[in-house]
Design a protein that fits this description.
With 307 residues, the chain is mainly alpha-helical. It is 75% helix and 4% strand. It contains 11 helices and 5 strands; from the N terminus they run E-E-H-H-H-E-H-H-H-E-E-H-H-H-H-H.
Length: 307
């Protein structure tokens, strides 16, 4: 199909979660509060871990990386949304939209990889405790995080370069509170079939692969815990990965719920509201999950805040 109105777009319009004027102050206050809680909570986790030498272990090294990624993840979308509400503007520039797509894909993918690395860390700690310090040495930990960053960067870069080749129609309204790749592709007038193939393939590979790795790690962990004779030993082993399991369940549960739900409905605004769960709520809850369920983090936070 050859469209009549093709434009070299200079800006898009983000319709947000609601176009009702009376709801904008409420949305601004709600999202500003959630953003500040997310940044402060995750920053406290990072500072508590870095200030306590007892937490300079692989598990907490990965946790501090997860907290950093969560701060960056929410900072990709929420500040622009807050600015738009405050200035009564829906505009985001073409370059700003591409930049938002890049960092959103990058940090979402990085979240998945870090969670997978953390699952592997728990697998080694529980299934191979005698070799844990040898296997999870600082060099390997640094390499795992570095590889996660490189793969996420390459994936997001590929997706954005392919978007740059597209032409867009005159209707440039995005029914979302940020530039989501799928929504942007729907506005294109040129053929998006290659983009769709790459998007779904990378989603299957880079989201399904880490999920499979997490499930495999926990299947081995459960098998190992079942061989422990004492109930106290089983509880102690399971408690070391309970927080991580909660975070994984929350992240994948909400993200899968959003995408399965959006596949069954054509109401894009409903999809935008559902996206709040994994894009905003999950990073906000992660510090609470780790601080409430982890005694070491609790003690480190108490020492840090008690200074």
């Amino acid at each position: 199909m050859e469209p009549d109105n093709v434009t070299q777009s200079s800006e898009f319009l983000l319709l947000g979660l609601s176009e009702e004027a009376q709801l904008q102050p409420l949305l601004f206050g709600l999202f500003l509060s959630m953003y500040l809680i997310t940044v402060l909570g995750n920053l406290l986790i990072i500072l508590a871990i870095s200030s306590d030498s007892h937490l300079h272990t692989p598990m907490y090294f990965f946790l501090s990386n997860l907290s950093l990624v969560d701060i960056c993840f929410t900072s990709t979308t929420i500040p622009k949304m807050l600015v738009n509400i405050q200035t009564h503007s829906k505009v985001i520039t073409y370059l700003g939209c591409i930049t938002q797509i890049y960092f959103y894909i990058h940090f979402a993918g990085l979240d998945e990889f870090i969670l997978t690395v953390m699952a592997y860390d728990r697998y080694v700690a529980i299934c191979h405790p005698l070799h844990y310090t040898v296997i999870m040495n600082p060099s390997l930990c640094g390499l795992l995080v570095l590889v996660s960053w490189i793969i996420s960067i390459l994936n997001s870069l590929l997706q954005c370069l392919m978007v740059l080749d597209l032409s867009f129609c005159s209707d440039l309204e995005i029914p979302h509170f940020f530039c989501e790749l799928k929504q942007v592709l729907q506005l294109a007038c040129s053929d998006t079939f290659p983009n769709d193939i790459v998007m779904y393939f990378s989603a299957g590979l880079l989201a399904g692969g880490p999920l499979a790795g997490i499930l495999y790690s926990y299947s081995k962990i459960v098998s190992s815990i079942r061989t422990i004779s004492s109930a106290q030993g089983k509880y102690k082993a399971f408690s070391t990965c309970a927080s991580h399991l909660s975070v994984v369940s929350l992240f994948y549960g909400t993200s899968l719920g959003v995408y399965l739900g959006s596949a069954s409905t054509h109401h894009s605004q409903s999809s935008a509201v559902a996206s709040v769960m994994y894009a905003v709520v999950t990073p906000m809850l992660n510090p609470f999950i780790y601080s409430l369920r982890n005694k070491d983090i609790k003690r480190a936070l108490e020492r840090f805040l008690g200074r």
